[in-house]
Amino acid sequence: MVIIKEKPVLRAWSVMGASVGINLALGILYAWSIFKEPIVRSIESGDGVFNWSPSAVNDPYAVSLMVFSFSMVPAGWIQDRLGPRITALMGGVLVGGGMLVASLSSSYIVWIIGFGVMVGGGIGCGYACTTPVTLKWFPPSMTGMAAGIVVAGAGLAPVYIAPLAQYLINEHDLGKTVLIFGVMIAGAVGILSFFLHDRKIEPGKSGACGIQDHVTGDTEVLPGRILRSATFRQVWLLYFAASGAGLMVIGSLAGMAKASMGETAFVAVAVVAIGNALGRIVAGSVSDRLGRENTILAVLVVQACLMFLAIRIVGGAGTGAFTLVFLASFIGFNYGTNSALFPALARDLWGLKNFGANYGMLFTAWGTGGFVMSRISQTLTAATGGYDASFILAGVVLLAAAVLAVAFKKRRYRIMAGKYKGAEEGYC
Fold first, then answer.
1. Could you say which of 15, 146, 213, 353 is the most buried, measured as most Cβ atoms within 10 Å of its Cβ?
2. Are 148 and 285 in contact (CB under 8 A)?
3. Torsion of CA 233, 82, 11, 285, to 10 degrees
């Protein structure tokens, strides 16, 4: 059993508040579609400012997703050993520096380095510490709820970033806008990091394969052991499909909405952000009661249906702005659930002691899914001139993941019941 030393309740909620604030600052990635529009206009007008290939417009976003996710592994290791404050400070410096670099040039390579590598790595550092440190202050029965509230900060970020970015771009230009955001983010994260008080956890007893029930967690499961397990591979694939489909839509949302909403397309981004944040809170709380596997399965099936519905709505003539935003908000809601469900599932499976590194490895699925799906989506859109092929691909991937989720659920129950032969050897 995991034994957590008692501390004042007020400290728990202050840590959660600081974590939410840091994620609000680092949620800049979800507003990429606003930054992308000036780049697209420049390419289409041929003004020579952004001499990029049309199929490469999403590359800084896609690279940032990939770097974000893979930086979670070393950042998680740093968080587990040096604490959340240092990790968060590193994140703020990297994001601020990356935005500064991107603001200085319109070069494709510079944007890949600045927005793609540095911003992605900085967000990974910040994200790697906020959820782990918060979960240490709340009991296992509140894991989903606590994780949902913390990650809701990143989901809500576009609510203020999207209109502010649109205003600054209209008043100044893309370069100055990116620079302003860099300074704001670095300052906010630097201040809030000092409120991330860590909490010591006394070692507990491990179970077979690190899998126990939803009341206790295994504190001894090491990253190397997890990588050898079939459980990790299955959960990784589920996360890949669920996150990739949602990020594909979020990355191109402003472009989809522009046809019917014009310059107010940023409103769609903000509305989807609210749905994204609500999905994280609602799914986290629901999964505490109905179970992670059941909730994940339901989300995958509903999201697949929404992707197929999007073919008719987004590609249909005369589609109203309200209908488009309504659909996008539900897609955002379902996507947001993943950010609460998978860290909560990781705690159920592998405990808290090495949570930063363990969840960091699992989180590579999020970035890989976002990179692959957004890159394919941009290529298909450039080739076909529409989004239908992208939605079909996403729907098929999600349905395949739903089938895998059913198999994972059955296998988990066999392991919990002690009927899985590989459990004793640690190969589950």
1. 146
2. yes
3. -10
Q: What are the CA-CA distances from residue 407 to residues 100, 237, 243, 291, 388 (Å)? A: 46, 12, 19, 15, 29
pLDDT in tens, 178-218: 999 999 999 999 999 999 988 876 555 434 344 443 333 44
Structure tokens at 158: 């576009």
The secondary structure of 23-80 as a DSSP string is HHHHGGGGGHHHHHHHHHHHHHHT-SS----GGGTTHHHHHHHHHHHHHHHHHHHHHH
pLDDT digits (tens, 9 = 90+) for 142-180: 888 888 888 888 878 878 887 888 889 888 888 899 999
* Residue 106 burial (C-beta neighbours within 10 Å; 0-12, 13-18, 19+): middle
pLDDT tens sequence across 100-122:
999 998 899 999 999 999 999 99
Residue where the block lists tokens 């590989």: 422
Gap between the Cα atoms of 276 and 281, Å rounded: 9
Task: Find the radius of gyration of the CA atoms of the chain.
Answer: 21
Contact criterion met (CB below 8 Å) for 115 and 102: yes
pLDDT of residue 317: 54
Say whether pTM exceeds 0.85: no
Distance (Å, whole) CA 257 – CA 361: 34
Q: How far apart are CA 316 and CA 54, in angstroms?
A: 24
In DSSP terms, 3 is beta-bridged to 202
